[in-house]
Amino acid sequence: MSNHFSKLTAAAALGAAGAGTAVLLRRKYQQQQRACAVRQARQLAGYRNTERGKQHKNAKGIYYTSGNYEAFARPEKPAGVEDKQAWIVGSGLAALAAACFLVRDGQMPGDHIHILEAMDVAGGACDGIFDPTRGYIMRGGREMEDHFECLWDLFRSIPSLEKPGASVLDEFYWLNKHDPNYSLCRATVRRGQDAHTDGRFNLSQKGCMEIVKLFMTPDQDLYDKTIEDVFDDEVFQSTFWLYWRTMFAFENWHSALEMKLYFQRFIHHIAGLPDFSALKFTRYNQYESLILPMQKYLEDAGVDFRFGVEVTNVLFEHRDGKKTATALECRCGGKEQGIPLTENDLVFVTNGSCTEGTIYGDQDHAPNGDAEVRTSGCWSLWKNIARQDPAFGHPEKFCSDISKTNWESATITTLDGRILPYIEAICQRDPRSGRVVTGGIVSCQDSSWLLSWTINRQGQFKEQDPGKVCVWVYGLFTDVPGDYIKKPMKDCTGCEITQEWLYHIGVPVDQIPQLAAHSAVCVPTMMPYITAFFMPRAKGDRPDVIPDGCVNFAFLGQFADTPRDTVFTTEYSVRTAMEAVYGLLGVDRGVPEVWGSVYDIRTLLESTVCLMDGRSPLDALPGPVQMAAKPLLRLVQGTVAEQLLRRYNILRPGMME
Q1: What is the DSSP string of 310-351?
Q2: Whole-number CA gyration radius for the chain
Q3: pLDDT value at position 15?
């Protein structure tokens, strides 16, 4: 009896609790509805049908713009600029761009701008040299496209060293108009045979959906995720992935967020991905074509270059919510020294470097050496800065696992004409014509090293012997044995790398050792951090260009964070420089926004059909769904929507019937 009573009591209690919970939930819902109504009322009350305030600066002191109105405008001189000094750490593309914007848009006197460079030459990763003891060396190349808005904004103002009265942009534009870039062979198999990728992506319907899903995923849902977290073999076994990973140097373990940003940033170039018709290249190597004209422009303006000065730390004072750089700690000629700073001293630091710690080999030696995380250089500087405030980023996310951030490149220079017929058979162009040769990389699809190679317009160096051809080679997998040389690429001499390349371009096996030894010379370069910026990351790992609270300090380059743009591009370096200068100096001119193709319905329609190798996404619908969709399609009949869908091959004849 008592047991039965206790059950009834418990049931009554549970019922009362349930009723009470229902009442509470109803009240909470009503409160949420009222709060939502209040928010909507406030939004409507604050709504104005006007464009006033559209160009107000954000918290970083900048605003974004589009179109050519501000692109051609000359900003007013910032107040008090004559009283300021600028200290730029590093002399890579981002650093030199910052100096150029200080001169051109900030109208700062050149002798107030100081560039501190640890090496004895400017350029950073944008290199290209002839080493008498080794040969020609290019650690990498630069692929450019129409919509590098900040890059072209800069180079329209930099005088050409080749053509009197022209800018670097002028000569680049004329060159690529007269000699447009495209590839005639994107990939090879079976020792130099055309792989006949034939412009197709070979993505399954499931693979296409995986890409679309990534495209639509919010950034925050991709923090610290890898590409293999979001793709499977439906993508990894496709020709699309061959194109993508070899062109951009993505590995399966790299950042899914960076992959998504790349896809969105270059969605307008999906059609040009298979044959590189989307790309444009300089006439010479990047150092001679881009860096030297900038350096000359700055020297003519009186900018102070100080080589052999390694900045090891920047000290900060935190007061009243402001962060002020107060001193630079430097090492010069083996001696420590300090440079005191005030709020009128603007500091720009390139944090991190993809070519830091490069190890060089030569024809007879592999690039062996200490490839561990270095205790000096750009990475050490960033670590020292980051220890002082979380807003300065987390360098360890990018530089702590060189097994995932390294690959190796090599510059092979032919010494006579014996190798050239094998090259010409693949690229179908004369390598010594001075015009486009391969039109981009040729990937050896069945190479164990995943070897790719390219020949840009020759000579790649202004003083290059016209009888020689410089070939740039790189391998994504440096730790597996080759197909001809049974050693990992990282352990190979220049001669051995040449032999592996000759094998994959179809040179008869009995001729390979002789040609590698006497008809070419090769300089290999191992770069431990070359893809460090692709490592999985979260918000805050890369610091903002101007970190919150900073009044006289900004980061530059590939490891600073700017919205929507993509790392590993010349545009990213120049964009961060423009934002840093405009924000700290108060330049009243809009930064060109990242090209908005991701918001263009025409681009989205066209790229969808391209990814599906010419098929309409409507073709992929199951039969019953196609039938059900026809009444909906008829709703757009006779409208501009129908015209748009037909123009981009979404709607085909018979689909509405």
Answers
A1: EEEEEEEEEETTEEEEEEEEEEETTEEEEEE--TTEEEEEE-
A2: 29
A3: 42
Cβ 414 vs Cβ 472: under 8 Å:
no
Q: How far apart are CA 478 and CA 449, in angstroms?
A: 6
pLDDT at 49: 83
Query: How far is C-alpha 424 from the geometric centre of its chain's CA atoms?
Result: 31
Percent of the chain with pLDDT over 70: 92
Q: How many whole angstroms separate alpha carbon 128 and alpha carbon 142?
A: 12
C-alpha span between 230 and 166 (Å, rounded): 47
> What is the token pair recorded at 563?
């919205």
Active site residue 356: no
Active-site residue (options: 136, 262, 582, 648): 262
| pLDDT value, residue 370 | 60
Q: 498, 335 in Cβ contact below 8 A? A: no
**Catalytic residue (choose from 143, 251, 258, 310):** 143
The predicted-structure confidence for 113-138, as pLDDT tens digits, reads as follows 999 999 999 999 999 999 999 999 99
Report d(CA 160, CA 101) in Å as an integer: 17
Strand, helix or coil for residue 22: helix
To the query of whether residue 262 is one of the catalytic residues in this protein, the response is yes
**Using an 8 Å Cβ cutoff, are 312 and 337 in contact?**
no
User: What's the pLDDT at 375?
Assistant: 52
pLDDT score for 8: 36
Determine how β-strand 304-307 pairs with β-strand 113-117.
Answer: parallel
**Residue ranges of the chain with pLDDT lower than 50?**
1-25, 371-373
3-8: long-range contacts, CB 8 A cutoff, minimum separation 24: none
Instruction: Tell me how far apart the alpha carbons of residues 525 and 139 are, in angstroms, rounded to a whole number.
Output: 7
